[in-house]
Write a structure and sequence with these properties.
75% helix; elongated; single chain; mainly alpha
């Protein structure tokens, strides 16, 4: 397990999740969920905030979990969330290009966590059980 990679994924996910919790437009606009004038409807903001909070919390868990079973579990939760996002957003976003982009981004983040789990290292700070 590459602890450093998993912690970096966790930190990035946590920061993004907190940012989208505060400013849902960061996710709504590129996903095609904003109005034509760029505004994000109150219902859309309400729906996106729990998703963003989930990312923030799972990212913090991945960034701070002790190496070993706890870190593996946090990584698996993060991977499941990313694959779930890919599956759900990939069939529900408003247009094909945005669906493809959402799948690519979600699978990409999940793949980083998978790589962190599978990467065998022996260096300082990267050993895992």
């Amino acid at each position: 397990m590459h602890v450093g990679l998993l912690r970096a994924v966790g930190a990035a996910t946590a920061v993004y999740g907190l940012a989208v919790t505060a400013w849902p437009a960061l996710l709504a606009k590129p996903s095609g969920l904003a109005e034509a004038d760029g505004r994000v409807a109150a219902a859309t903001r309400t729906a996106l905030r729990p998703l963003a909070w989930r990312d923030a919390v799972s990212g913090v868990a991945l960034a701070l979990a002790p190496a070993g079973p706890a870190l593996r579990t946090a990584a698996c939760v993060r991977i499941a969330a990313d694959l779930g996002d890919a599956a759900l957003l990939g069939v529900t976003l408003p247009d094909r290009a945005r669906r493809r982009a959402a799948v690519a981004v979600s699978v990409g983040w999940g793949a980083l966590s998978v790589a962190g789990l599978l990467w065998r290292t022996t260096g300082r700070g990267n050993r895992g059980a």
